[in-house]
Each structure stands twice: as structure tokens, then as C-alpha cells.
């Protein structure tokens, strides 16, 4: 087969092919479509395999292993690269950012490690990226962007002048598997023109979710679950008006759930379960009225429907009071009594100081004090004491 230099298609999916990837394929310079998925092909992908006119590659569900070194490096008009469900190792190569027409990148269920290459940000035509179930670490590149295949298809027509290559671009009938709404679906044909999604789940990613998530134009599915992400849920999620599936579960996210998410009217699957979120759940209305308790479970500080824990109706919940304070009304009575006694003592000392300094005021003070004492005595003698004696008799 390696001598068939003008061969443009190899479609041998779902057979019982076994053995290593044929190194003879390196001589197939006219190859545009390669589909060997669902076989038992093993070993390494030869570094020499990089046909210039290659548009679609489907090698999923085999037993391929080792790193992807320079294979596909020169296939700069590659649109679909599906290497999922193999035993590939090493890092995702940086040169992948040179595949300027790449739209569908499926590397899930392998053993890739290291960081997500920032060079992926150079791929302005990405509509579907699945890196789930690997050992990737580090942060999510904030420059990562996504679009739909329908938006960039006309650009490809101008980019590639060869009519045959344009035909291969528009006739992607091979199925692509992608998980959304917590289920795996198989997509092919025209539906792919409207498909856009990112799945980075089940890795070891850290850091915060980038606030630039509004770069994911028209995305319909985003899965960041089962990582070690921290920080708040970005308010920018409320700009993803076309999103249908959003899974942020099993991370270490904190803070509140942005109430603006209720404006995502296309959302049909939502999960923030098993994080460290607090506050109230989004208003139980519209599509959010369809989400059950399992969408929020595992966040002890969350309250509100559909959780059994009700939110406090008071202006300030006990958790919002300063440390060491208690809720006993407007006044702290201990402080009130203390200030009253202090004021009384200050007043007495002030009067005593004035009387000590000024002899005239001191004399007048004692005179008036004596007069008041006499009047009180005579008042008691004339009005109170006679009545007591009268009652006693």
C-alpha cells in the first residue's frame, strides 16, 4: 500500500486489524482521509507520517502508545484529529498550534501529561476540543477560544484552492463522539457544523477558571469537572447564551453562584456539585426549576431550592456576624452600663473640682444644700410622718 502514492482515502474502521501502525504510510503523500478507528493497531505513530494534504484522521479506539512527536506536524490543513481512547503518553506537542485549520481535536482517554499548550490559542478555528481523562496539570489558558464549524467553513474555501480538499472538508461523515449533559453522544454530518464544546474533565488542572470564558462564542457544552480548580465561578458564564450543558462539579470552587446564570435559557444540564460554594442557589425559575438537588449536592454552605436547607430570611445571617459578637438587640447592655457609670463619675469629679477651686461657689453650694435638706425634713415632718402615726393608731 505504501507504493500507492496517489491514494487519497483509507477507510478501514471497525475491523480486526492488528499490529503496528504501518510505516509505509509515510509515503502516502496524497492521503486526505485516514480512518482506522476501532481496531487493534498498536505501537507508535511514525514521526514521518505527516501528509501535506491530510484533512481527516480517525485513529480512536486502538492500542496506540508512546508520545506524538512529529506525526501530523506538516499536515497544516488538518481539520479533524481524533486520537482518543488509546494509550498515548507524553505532552501534547507545541507544534499543534501550527495546524491553523484544526477544528476537531479529540485526545481524550489517553495518558497525556504536562500543561495544556498555550499554542492552542493560535487555533482560531477550533470548534470541539476534548482533552478529558488524561493527566494534564497546570492552569487553563485564558486565551483559549472556541467557535463553530459553520462560522469558519467559508474561510476554509478561500484558504484551500484545491476543489478536492474543499470537498473532503465539507463531507465529514465519520462519527465524532463527545460527552455532553453527562452522556456520550455520536455526532456526524451537518450537525457538526453547529457543534462547539470543550471537555477538560478528569485531569489535574489547577488555578481559577479564566474570566475570559466569553471567548467561547456559541459554545453548547463545557465540562471542567473532576479537577482541582479554585476560586469563584466567573460572572462571564452568563454571556454564554447558547450553552446547553455546564459541568463544574468535583472541584474546589468557592464563593457564590452568580444569580445572572438564570439568563442562560438554553441550559438543560447544570452541575456544581461537590465544591465549596456558599450562599443561595439561583432563583428556582425557568430552566433552573428543572435542576434537582444532585446539581448542588456536596456544598454544605449552599441553601435554597431544590436543596432541603432553607436560606435565612433575616437581614444578616449568623455566619455574617463579626466573630465573638452575639445577636441581643440594638444595644450591648454591658457597654451601656459601663458608659453610664463612667459619665456619672466624671460629673461628680467635675463638680468637686469646681467647688474646691472657687470658695464662693463652695459656700453657696453648702448653703443651698442645707436649705434643701431643711425643706425636705419639714416636708416629711408635716405631711408624711403624721399619716404614718395616724394609721398606726
From TrEMBL:
Keywords assigned by UniProt, alphabetized: Glycoprotein, Leucine-rich repeat, Membrane, Receptor, Repeat, Signal, Transmembrane, Transmembrane helix
GO cellular component terms attached to this protein's record: membrane
Localisation per UniProt entry: Membrane
InterPro entries: Leu-rich_rpt, LRR_dom_sf, RLP_Defense_Trigger
Bilayer topology annotation: Single-pass type I membrane protein
Keyword Lipid metabolism applies: no
Domain of life the protein comes from: Eukaryota
Annotated transmembrane regions: 335-357
Family according to the record: Belongs to the RLP family.
Protein name (database record): Receptor like protein 13
Amino acid at each position: 500500500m505504501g507504493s500507492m502514492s496517489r491514494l487519497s482515502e483509507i477507510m478501514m474502521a471497525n475491523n480486526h486489524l492488528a499490529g503496528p501502525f504501518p510505516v509505509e504510510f509515510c509515503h502516502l503523500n496524497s492521503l486526505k482521509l485516514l480512518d482506522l478507528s476501532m481496531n487493534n493497531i498498536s505501537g507508535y505513530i511514525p514521526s514521518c507520517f505527516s501528509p501535506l494534504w491530510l484533512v481527516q484522521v480517525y485513529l480512536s479506539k486502538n492500542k496506540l502508545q508512546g508520545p506524538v512527536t512529529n506525526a501530523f506536524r506538516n499536515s497544516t490543513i488538518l481539520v479533524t484529529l481524533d486520537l482518543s481512547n488509546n494509550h498515548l503518553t507524553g505532552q501534547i506537542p507545541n507544534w499543534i498550534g501550527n495546524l491553523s485549520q484544526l477544528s476537531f481535536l479529540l485526545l481524550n482517554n489517553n495518558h497525556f501529561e504536562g500543561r495544556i499548550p498555550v499554542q492552542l490559542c493560535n487555533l482560531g478555528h477550533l470548534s470541539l476540543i476534548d482533552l478529558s481523562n488524561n493527566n494534564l496539570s497546570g492552569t487553563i489558558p485564558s486565551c483559549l477560544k472556541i467557535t463553530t464549524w459553520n462560522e469558519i467553513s467559508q474561510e476554509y474555501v478561500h484558504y484551500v484552492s484545491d476543489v478536492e480538499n474543499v470537498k473532503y472538508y465539507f463531507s465529514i461523515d465519520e462519527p465524532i463522539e463527545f460527552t455532553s449533559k453527562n452522556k456520550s453522544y455520536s455526532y456526524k454530518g451537518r450537525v457538526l457544523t453547529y457543534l462547539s464544546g470543550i471537555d477538560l474533565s478528569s485531569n489535574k488542572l489547577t488555578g481559577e477558571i479564566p474570566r475570559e470564558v466569553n471567548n467561547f462564542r456559541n459554545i453548547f457544552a463545557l465540562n471542567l469537572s473532576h479537577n482541582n480548580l479554585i476560586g469563584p465561578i466567573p460572572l462571564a458564564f452568563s454571556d454564554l447564551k447558547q450553552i446547553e450543558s455546564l459541568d463544574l462539579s468535583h472541584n474546589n470552587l468557592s464563593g457564590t453562584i452568580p444569580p445572572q446564570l438564570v439568563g442562560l435559557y438554553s441550559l438543560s444540564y447544570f452541575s456544581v456539585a461537590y465544591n465549596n460554594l456558599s450562599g443561595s442557589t439561583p432563583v428556582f425559575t425557568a430552566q433552573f426549576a428543572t435542576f434537582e438537588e444532585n446539581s448542588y449536592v456536596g456544598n454544605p454552605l449552599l441553601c435554597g431550592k431544590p436543596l432541603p436547607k432553607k436560606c435565612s430570611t433575616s437581614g444578616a445571617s449568623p455566619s455574617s456576624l463579626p466573630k465573638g459578637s452575639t445577636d441581643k438587640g440594638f444595644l450591648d447592655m454591658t457597654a451601656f452600663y459601663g458608659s453610664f457609670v463612667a459619665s456619672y463619675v466624671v460629673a461628680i469629679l467635675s463638680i468637686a473640682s469646681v467647688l474646691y477651686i472657687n470658695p464662693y461657689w463652695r459656700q453657696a453650694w453648702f448653703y443651698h444644700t442645707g436649705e434643701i435638706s431643711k425643706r425636705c425634713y419639714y416636708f416629711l415632718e408635716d405631711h408624711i410622718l403624721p399619716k404614718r402615726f395616724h394609721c398606726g393608731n
